# Entry
Amino acid sequence: MTTKLNHAHPSKMEARHIDEVRNMTPQQRFEKLMAIIEISYLLKTSKKISK
# Structure
């Protein structure tokens, strides 16, 4: 699986994302979801940087 970090029109980015997800196995989808949940939790519970 390769992920491209490109900038394009939002409709093209959405179509690329949908195509990428359709080509994943259920296991890969689950792993990606768990990674997103883990990052979300880490960001939510991390200490804020004070300036």
Remarks:
- The two ends are 39 Å apart (CA to CA).
